[in-house]
Amino acid sequence: VVVLVRPRNPLNIGAAARAMRNFGAEHLRLVNPYAVAFREARSAVGASDVLRTAQEFKSVADAVADCVLVVGTTAVRNRALQHQLRRLHDESARAIRTAMNSGRVALLFGSEKTGLTNEDFTHCHWLLHVPTQEKQISMNLGQAVAVCLFGISSAVPDGVPGDEACTESAAVSGEIEKITQALYEALKISGYVKPGNDAVSEKKVRRLMLRFNLQVMDAKVLLGMLRQIVWKLRQAK
Amino acid sequence: VVVLVRPRNPLNIGAAARAMRNFGAEHLRLVNPYAVAFREARSAVGASDVLRTAQEFKSVADAVADCVLVVGTTAVRNRALQHQLRRLHDESARAIRTAMNSGRVALLFGSEKTGLTNEDFTHCHWLLHVPTQEKQISMNLGQAVAVCLFGISSAVPDGVPGDEACTESAAVSGEIEKITQALYEALKISGYVKPGNDAVSEKKVRRLMLRFNLQVMDAKVLLGMLRQIVWKLRQAK
Questions:
Q1: Which end of chain B is less packed: N or C, by CB atoms within 10 Å?
Q2: Looking at CA atoms only, how far is residue A92 from chain B in angstroms?
Q3: pLDDT digits (tens, 9 = 90+) for B15-53
Q4: Model-level pTM?
């Protein structure tokens, strides 16, 4: 799944779709695209199935809800990152291919001007970076999509078929987001989260949950626990 | 050196230049570009040094004359190719990086519509192919440049500094072209080349010379021999 967050240029949306067809990515999703750009890209002559079936979402959380792995892309090497940053190379590409054995993987690309925000990053398990020259680190969006998909498609996934069982049960982002929301709710009601400082804490919670690498069953159990706690907390208010 | 042969779209020329800056390629050369496209690309807002210093050539031979290795790109897997075809992968990328120890390497990209012709191929030592899905083998020009340069830039060249001596003396394409022309001239005058069949034979001669992997000194000697032969043949006419 290729997720373009706030894309502004129809040519870049079209270019992303074309690279997806070259390298075999199936689902194009757009988070709050510039409306005109999306319309133009879709109505372009020869628009492919990828473009015609592209879906629009209101938030990154919604766009990645069914994915077992969410990878953000960034040109910046040393933003004060609270995420693991990996170079596009055999090892990181293999990690993505291996995760594809267990479910959908989302690759996030930010807008042409600003890239992904720190808020966007909180939805990511880790960040991917294409090594470039120091002088010119910012890539064209369509080219970045092409390079990343090429790098991923040319890597060989780890493990033999028998190995898949152990990864097959990774929880999708939508489930982890439910846990995040439940825990956050619990933290708010419980007074752990101070009013006026909400945004920071929600991000921290989300990152924490992603680092857990939750399996399906564990996620289900944890969500049940948290919902029970929230229910109790609400009663006690 | 990135050589765009007959490019038609200014956006693609600009995109190629941008990818070159991302991945550290220095010289952009255009063979018979669509004039309007080249003008527009160069006058674009924020045109980079790469674009401003881009050079125009009348022929592929001229554009690659100072290069020790010329690699053509092609989307097609099994055209009736008389050239070695290699996938963009560690091994082929390393071969290019290793050649860069001894001189300039040219990477040729054909026009958006038709790609490189068989005539263009005759100037290449070998051909490079980006592995794609069967259903969609044709890449956008700007994306193809980005993917190839990324693949090459992320490979590690073979050999230690001490090894360079053995490759440092590879003859540049301009020298090999002189040999090709001299030999071809000799073949024409000598009657080996039949009138009406010129084009085919010139290509064959060029490919033959490229396969020799001539070193600087050997090329010099061979050229001297052939020029002498031509001189003699002309006298005898």
A1: C
A2: 13
A3: 999 999 999 999 999 999 998 888 888 887 777 889 999
A4: 0.81
